[in-house]
Amino acid sequence: MRVTIYVPLNGSIEGITPPYRAFHTANDFLTASGKEPVFGVEYVGLLEHIPANNGEYMIKTNRLLQDVTETNLLIIPPLFGDISKAVYANAPAIPFIKKLFHQGASLASLCVGAFLLAETGLLNDKKCSTHWAFMETLKERFPRVEVENGSVISIEENIYSSGGANSLWNLLLYLIEKYADRETAVMISKYFALDIGRESQSQFTIFRGQRNHGDTDIIRVQDYIETKFKDKITIQILANLIHTSRRTFERRFKEATNNTPMAYIQRVRMEAAKNYFETTRMNINEVMFDVGYSDAKAFREIFKNNTGLTPGEYRKRYTWKDSSSHSAKTTVI
């Protein structure tokens, strides 16, 4: 099976090298277990030598993209820096990507490589994952793409996409299992110390309310929610802030932020709860009350729906305790 890794101009080395290493390592494991290697892996690009991470690295391609007449799987790694500039720089690759797809090649975008894949039009009316911090940007730029909130992997026929950062490894493991076998994928996950079963980016997501919508009234409401989230907040209280009816307020808020008012309140409260678990030694009930909840069951359900973890699991995973002082410190995600 031929795996072609497109090395983008303005690409990210953190996403370019993992597929190359993963498929080569899979071949090594297959050979060691007495099986035939499955993958023929190559770098291709628009140039013979391509800088990555603004010139910090230089990658030599095996051949030019325009010389690839057939492949089984074309991987589009993440772009680096300004997304619009990176997509523009790689625009000459789009006709070749489309040609290979129409000849039967499967496509896989990693992280924000989804922007280049979406630019081809091949994602129109299809599901797609990308880094959680870029989901809204992808939705705005490509309204016909069905961006999946928080998904680690999206699969649409023979088009694959992954979520942010290390989520790309989950897609690589999936592809290795699909084209080789489960045993090899498990070996790869152990070799690279990867979680083969993760399905959601939600535990890593940092909620930042959508604020570039230009509706100053709604920004005022957002400011109120983000400072008063511990209090009892009703839709009517929020509507009264901007002197409008409840129905009109709910419509304007959803149009501006892509969240209902209650969903927005929940997400602000959950972000505060996450911060408490990461940086303090407050117990779960203390955190629950401090972020505006009195029903323990409801708090736990909402927290897990937002993060994919229970409050206890989240605290255990993301609280860093100094072994000398035993005090909790912030974990940067």
Characteristic terms for this protein:
single chain, 333 residues, alpha/beta, Rossmann fold, Arc Repressor Mutant, subunit A, two-stranded antiparallel ribbon, disordered C terminus
User: How big a fraction of the residues is strand?
Assistant: 5-15%
Q: What is the helical fraction, as a range of percent?
A: 40-55%
Order of helices and strands: EHEEEEEHHEHEHEEEHHHHHHHHHEE
How would you write the strand order of the largest sheet?
5-2-1-6-7-11-10
Query: CATH superfamily of the largest domain, please?
Result: Class I glutamine amidotransferase (GATase) domain
The major beta sheet can be summarized as: 7 strands, mixed
**On the 0-100 scale, what is the average pLDDT?**
88
- By DSSP (H or I, 4+ residues per run), the number of helices equals 14
Summarize the structure in words.
By secondary structure, the chain is an alpha/beta fold. The chain folds into 2 domains: 2-201, Rossmann fold (3-Layer(aba) Sandwich), CATH 3.40.50; 216-329, Homeodomain-like (Arc Repressor Mutant, subunit A, Orthogonal Bundle), CATH 1.10.10. It contains 14 helices and 13 strands. The chain has helices at 13-32, 83-89, 94-102, 114-119, 135-141, 167-179, 182-191, 216-228, 235-241, 246-257, 261-279, 284-290, 296-307, 311-318, and strands at residues 2-6, 40-45, 49-52, 57-60, 63-64, 73-76, 106-109, 127-128, 146-147, 153-156, 159-162, 320-321, 328-329. Helix 9 crosses helix 10. The longest helix has 20 residues, at 13-32. The radius of gyration is 23 Å and the shape is globular.
